[in-house]
Design a protein that fits this description.
- The protein is of the alpha+beta class and about 525 residues long.
- Among the domains are: about 170 residues, no CATH class; about 140 residues, no CATH class.
- The chain is built from eight helices and 24 strands.
- A six-stranded mixed β-sheet has the order 1-5-23-15-18-19. A four-stranded antiparallel β-sheet has the order 6-12-9-10, with no helix packed on it.
- Helix 2 packs across helix 4 and helix 5 crosses helix 6.
Length: about 525
Amino acid sequence: MATPFPRVPWCFLLLALTGCEPAVTQGPEAGFEAEVLGTSEADIRIANSLTTQELVLNAIAANHDANEALSTHSLESLFDPDVMVVGADSALIANQLHDPDAQRFMAYLVGCALGPGETLEWLNPFLPPGSQRSEWAGSAGLCPQWRTSAPLPDSACLKRVTACLLARNNGLGYRVELSMRGEIHEPLVPLDQPFALDAWTEPLDHVPGSPASLNSAAPCSSATVGSGRNCGWTMHSVGWCPAGQTVSVGAGGPTGGAAACPSGTPLGSSSGARMMLRVCRGIAGCDNTDGRLVANSEGCTSGSTYPLPSPATDPSVSATCPAQGGYFTVMTAPWNSAATGTANVAVSAGVQAPLSERGVYRVREGAFYGNLFGAQALRDEINVLVTTDKRGRYVITRPTDRQVKPIFNNLYACYDPGWVYGMAYATYRVCALPGTHEDCAATVTGPCWDASPDVRQCGKQDGPLLTGDGDFEDCKDTVGNHWLEPVTVFLNGACDLVDDAHRELCARWSEPPPPREGQGGVDGKTPVEPRKR
């Protein structure tokens, strides 16, 4: 989430929303299935997303003793081999890490708790002795003190991490980007404003609806020239294209793109090295062969081998927007992948670019809240075990029957009133079996907001610390308890998390308005912030 712009307090947090696999399979009459793992992890494929099964049936969160140990110790004392406190609790956690789902769960927990640039070291039992050191990376920074200090019982810290984890899974296994918004009510806790606004939203560097990274976002293995290459590109910015309007994006090339070559009015500029542009539809970057590609540009004289900026080689792209308008992304790259240059990108009048996080993520989905940590977190009859058999293989025993009640006692979600079928959509969102009420990660309480105070589940639909960010606050559970640490999720598209068989669930009473002036970093011919390569 690094941005060259100053951050506005208490607003947005952009994270990758991660998906869910199908529910656990049916098993023996006892209702639990023993899963036998080998002694090597090399042949186990771990999904590039946090699934509902990984969230609610992993051997740390869904084991009573391990869950309580996690919530009453610092993360370093349980995981970091350099400062680990040797004892029964750290030994238990080490044993439970033989479950790949537990490893995935911890990766996302650390991502929610620790901040950008922070890591937590741990020993991976599936790696050879002497080379087991691994690390999980922080991202959101919602509970950084957990690294060195045990959380207080029922702490706001644990509830923020819970809301983050719950928001980051869904029933489809989709990788979808989302904006998480909320407030922190602990003025004495020195958090570095984790709910902060990105004034500049970079394009996604993965293929939409897929865990696959974009080839063009990876460095080139050797020096490569030309705009047709699928490596060595930088994700630059996201913009909004007005309905039916012809727009131009340039880094020194003429306004109007190739049709205005060679003498059109320059738009933007390039410096340091010859630069190129690529424009794609949507909010993700694209490869040269992608159907979302609008155009590449390496200047008016594309066949030129001149390596420096010039009127003949500076790029620009012109395109006509769809009738309904839409998002587009800008990518930049030096013509020679081994060179370093700066693309000072500018857009034609009326275009909103670069867009802020508020301008890209406009569909309010709902709020997530609760606490999945502590002695009372799990239902009594749920306990995922890691044991060894007579051959020394680790055996993971999980419930196999479909669960009618949520695994955890205090996980909740409410839905934005903009959904036509709000209860159905929200249930679909939090359950591992879309279309059913089984194997659900949370209990859906109802609409987050309603004209009637008796119906609405939250006390506020726009928290006071930043007016206009649309965060639900002070949300109730099914027995009227109030939770003060909800996370409100905004999506780019209403159907981002709905498969083709359930498209009716993403119906909205109205579409959000297009991004407006002020939600983009610039409007008109002012160059946007340079990006170096």
